[in-house]
Amino acid sequence: MTAYSSNHALTDFVHSHKLMKSNSVIDFMAVVTIRTILNKITNQQMRIMVHLDGYDSLGTLTFIENELDPYLYPTEFNAKWQTFQYIDDEYLLIKGNHTMNTNIGKYEVKIIPLQKMVY
């Protein structure tokens, strides 16, 4: 298994899977698995948006148009504060610890891209 964790994991994931549109919008469908300290969702399709710009930002990833309860699952991730790993040129793994919400606690998110959104 080839895995690496770096400041560029999110960017490499986006470019490797050609998820960025010509206008720099990164909006795609993915299969997502989330494990928190109390709950688990396995292989659910979700729409995801990524922002790679911004001062002092390594990028953010947000679940959009989903029915996740934000009190039970994390919904937004910042590469500056969580661990992002791009594994086997296949999927993105995000690990973190939600210190403000013990119902989430330590979590792990696996994201397998399906297709970028077409408008």
Describe this structure in words.
By secondary structure, the protein is mainly beta. The chain has one helix at about 10-15; strands spanning about 5, 25-35, 40-50, 60-65, 75-80, 85, 90-100, 105-115. The protein has an eight-stranded antiparallel sheet, with helices on one face. The radius of gyration is 14 Å and the shape is globular. The mean pLDDT is about 90.
Layout of strands and helices, then pairs:
Elements: E1 3-5, H1 9-16, E2 26-35, E3 40-51, E4 60-64, E5 76-78, E6 83-87, E7 91-98, E8 105-116
Brief synopsis:
The protein is mainly beta and 119 residues long.
Query: CATH fold name, please?
Result: PH-domain like
- Structural class estimated from helices and strands: mainly beta
Alpha-carbon distance between the two ends: 36 Å
How many DSSP helices?
A: 1
> Under the CATH scheme, which class?
Mainly Beta
Q: How many strands appear in the DSSP assignment?
A: 8
What percent of the residues sit in helical stretches (DSSP H or I)?
under 10%
Instruction: State the CATH architecture.
Output: Roll
Strand order of the largest sheet: 1-6-7-8-2-3-4-5
Name the average pLDDT.
Answer: 88
Overall form = globular
The poorly predicted ranges are none
Strand content: over 45%
Let me know the largest β-sheet: 8 strands, antiparallel
Order of helical and strand elements: EHEEEEEEE
Total domain count: 1
Cα-atom radius of gyration: 14 Å
